[in-house]
Sequence to fold (222 residues):
Amino acid sequence: AQRVTQPEKLLSVFKGAPVELKCNYSYSGSPELFWYVQYSRQRLQLLLRHISRESIKGFTADLNKGETSFHLKKPFAQEEDSAMYYCALNSGGYQKVTFGTGTKLQVIP
Amino acid sequence: KAGVTQTPRYLIKTRGQQVTLSCSPISGHRSVSWYQQTPGQGLQFLFEYFSETQRNKGNFPGRFSGRQFSNSRSEMNVSTLELGDSALYLCASSLAPGDEKLFFGSGTQLSVL
Fold:
């Protein structure tokens, strides 16, 4: 069974400090990993996906198959980054997307 | 293009009652999935519908059910409500099951008293 683990419920960092939101997954095949974000009073939305190898709003995430991780990183946190972040796994085919329990990022001014 | 629409936005019910939530996907999207969001458990998958058929189901009791209509609109029903059912229920649509990008609605906030 596929599983996504986000060990931190809350992560507090100061503005300008580096951010790393942890995500580990369990899946025997080749997964597709995503990060979704939910800002206050806004809808949950896709932030980035590993297959695109993109940087969105300064965030990047690298899929490490050896460590089965997909950590979200940003070198300098901004106040507007404060939000709830969910890591998600798509095993492909007609399988459901599995979400982690989420990490609330709080950037302290 | 209109986004995913969920109605109602808020619901207050009492224990033992039943409730029906509605979701209209983005035009052209045929897959609809439902999630329960709570502060303690995060996002938990309820079920997914495609072409009026339930394709996947999460680990929720039989009190939670759903259906999808020919126009891809979906409803979920919760019977015999319990206090623990209080949560934000999110609907997401995609072109097909397993599609890499989900589009979420604003959710229905259900409070069970």
Chain A touches chain B through 24 residues (CB under 8 Å). The CA atoms of residues 62 and 70 of chain A lie 6 Å apart. The mean pLDDT of chain A is 90. Chain A has no helices and eleven strands.
